[in-house]
What we know:
Elements: H1 2-37, H2 49-64, H3 71-101, H4 114-146, E1 149-152, H5 160-174, E2 180-183, E3 197-205, E4 213-218, E5 226-229, E6 237-241, H6 242-248, E7 257-269, H7 283-294, E8 299-305, H8 310-320, E9 327-330, H9 339-343, H10 371-377, E10 380-384, H11 390-401, E11 405-412, H12 420-430, E12 434-439, H13 447-460, E13 463-465, E14 472-473, E15 477-484, E16 487-495, E17 507-514, H14 517-531, E18 543-545, H15 549-565, E19 571-576, H16 582-594, E20 597-602, E21 619-624, E22 629-630, E23 633-637, E24 644-648, H17 654-658, E25 660-667, H18 670-685, E26 690-693, E27 699-701, H19 712-726
Amino acid sequence: xxxxxxxxxxxxKENRKVKEAEKEIGKKTEVLEKxxxxxxxxxxxxxxxxxxxxxxNKRVLSEARDKQIPLFERVxxxxxxxxxxxxxxxxxxxxxKDMVNGGYxxxxxxxxxxxxxxxxxxKATHELVNLQxxxxxRSLVPLLYTNGLRIIEHHEDLTAGEIEYVDRYFxxxxxxxxxxxAVDSSRPFPLIRNKSxxxxxxxxxxxxxxxxxxxxxxxxxxxxxxxxxPSEKEGERVIILLEELVERNxxxxxxxxxxxxxxxxxxxxxxxxxxxxxxxxxxxxxIEKKLKRRQWGQAIRLEVESGIDKRLLKIIxxxxxxxxxxxxxxxxxxxxxxLMKMYxxxxxxxxxxxxxxxxxxxxxxxxxxxxxxxxRKHDILLHHPYQTFAPVVEFIRRAAKDPDVLAIKQTLxxxxxxxxxxxxxxxxxxxxxxxxxxxxxxxxxxxxxNIVWAKMLEKAGCHVIYGLVGLKxxxxxxxxxxxxxxxxxxxxxxGTGNYNDxxxxxxxxxxxxxxxxxxGEDATAVFNMLSGYSEPRFWNKLALAPLWLKDxxxxxxxxxxASAKAGRNAHIIAKMNSLCDRDIIAALYGASAAGVKxxxxxxxICTLKVGIPGVSENISVRSIVGNxxxxxxxxxxxxxxxxxxxxxxxxxxxxxxxxRVEILFPVEQPDLKEKVLHILQGELKDxxxxxxxxxxxxxxxxxxxxxxxxxxxxxxxxxAKKAARLGTEAVDERVFIPETHHQ
Length: 743
C-alpha cells in the first residue's frame, strides 16, 4: 500500500513536471509567434521626437522646482530650460514650419504629419513657458528676496533714491550706445535681429496730427543686462534689468514725441541652414555667407510682455508675419537665460551646491610623469568631469614639444573660446611636426568659432580638413605618431565628448588613452579616410558610422536576442543622450520579446515606449538630470557571460548612425571594464537624480521608499577625490562610497 502511494506520488510529480515543461514550451512558442507576427516598425510603438524633447526640458525644469536643491542651482536650471527652448525653436520648430510651408505630409516615426506635430508642439511649449514663469515668479523671486537679493521687476517699483541712481547710470552708460529707430514713410520697419531684446513703442508727435507711429530700440547686448543698484538696506543686494532702464528713459530717445506706450519684445528666427556641398567650391566661404543670413531668417516665435497694447502688438505681428499661435505673452522678464549671469553674482556661495569636488587628478598620470611611458604600460581611462581634462591637453602639448613625435592628427567638433588644444596644435606645426586637423565647420552654433580656429591653424602650418561632403564629422579621436627605439608607435586618445576644456568641467564623458597596435592601425585608417579617399577593407577594433556602426549595433543586439532564445543569460545596458532610430528600437523590441533584459539610460529624447505587453516589458528607461550634463555614450552586452563594453561618440539616432562620421571603441582591459560597468551600475542605482519612463509616456522621479538616497554624480565625484588622494594604489581596487550621500 505504501509502495503504491509512493509510486502514485512519483507519477503525480512527473506529470506536474511534464505539465510545467509543456506550459514553459507553450509560453516560448507564444512569444515566438507574437514576435513573428509583430511589426515593430508600426508607428503605434513610437512616441514623437519633439514631444519627447519637451518632456526632457520638463525634467530639467523639475530641478528648478525641487526645493531640496540649493536656491542658486534652481536658478541655473531655470536658465538652462530657457536656453534649451531657444535652440529647440531655432532648429526643430523651424524645421517643422518649413515642412508645413512646403506642403510636406510624410509622417514621422510616430505616424504624425508635420502639421500635427507642430500643433502638439505649440500647445506643449505654451504650457512649458507658463510653468517656467510660474516657477520664476511664485517660487524663485520670493526666495531670492528672502535670501537678500531683491529683483526690481518693473521700473515703476523704484524708490526715489533708486530712481536717481538708475537715471544717472542710464545717461552715463546706456544712452550713448542706443540707436532709436522710428518707422514712417521714409524709414521702413527695421530688421530685428534673432534673439535680440527690443523695446517697441507707440509714439505721437508733440505738435501736429494725432496719428500714432511705431518706434523701437534694441537693448544693447554689449552692456551687462543685470544692473546692480546700491541698496538702502543693510545686507540687501538690489538688481534691475537693463531693459527696464531703457523702457523708463525711452522718452529721452524721442524728444519730439510723446510716448503712448512701450513694451519689450523678442523674436526667434529660423537659424538652421542647408548647404549644397556638392555645388560649393569653398565650404568655409559658403558657411561664412550662410552665418550672416542666420540673423535674418524667418521669424517663428514672438515673445512680448503680457498686457502689451493691442495696437502695438498688431504692428509687430503684421510686420514680422507672426501667427497668433506663435505669440507668447509673458508675465515676467523676457529671455530667462539672464539667470545664468545672475548665478555668477558674488556673495551667494552659501546658496550654491558645494558637495561636489572639483575635477581631480588622474592617479596614473601625475603632473611630471612620462605620459607616453604610462600609456605604454596599460590603457588609461578618464572619467570627466570627476577627473580633470588636463591630461588630454597635456598629451597634445607634450607631443607638440617632443622631438620624437613625427605627426599629430585630430578631429575637432567643438572647442572652447581660448582653446589650449588649438595652441598646442599650432605649436606642433611650428615645431615641424606633421599636423592634420579635421575642423568640422558644420557644428551647429559653433560654425563661426570653428572658422576662426581653422584659419588660425592653417596660418600656423597645419593641414586643415573641413569635414566630408554631406557628412558631419562628430567622432572624437587623436593620433600621435612617435619614433621610438623599437620602431614607430602610435598613441591614441578616444572619447565620448568634445575636445573642449571648458565643457569638460560640466559634461560627463569618458576618454581612453591606448597604444594598442590594432587600435593604432585603425586610427591611421580613420584619418586616411577623412583626408583622402582611402576606405579600409576591414577594421581591427573600431567601428565607424555611417557605413559600419549601425550594422555593428544591430549585430550585438541580435546576438543577445539569440542568447535569450537559447535560454542563456542576455542583458543590454546602453547609455546615451538620445534614442530615436527606428531600426535600433525595433531590434530592442525584438530582443525584449525574446527575454533580453534591457536597461537604457537616456538623458534626452527617447521615442521608444516601455511596458507594451509582449514587446517592451523587459525594457526600462531612466533619465538622469543632475549637477552635470550626462553626455557619455556607453554600451554593455552580456555576450553569454563574456561581457563586451563599448564607448563612443554616437547616440542611437539616424543622424549619428547614417549621416555623421562617428567612432565606437571597445574597452577591453579588465580593470577598465570594471570601472565602466561600475559607472553604469551606479547610474542604475540612482534614487536622487533619476527619472523613470512610465508606460503612459510620462517620467517620474524614482520612488525612494525603502531605498537609501544614492546620487550617482555625487558618488562618482567623491570616488574620484578618494582615488586621487590614495594615488595609484587605488587604481586597481574599487573605491566604495557609502550610498547615503545626497544633495
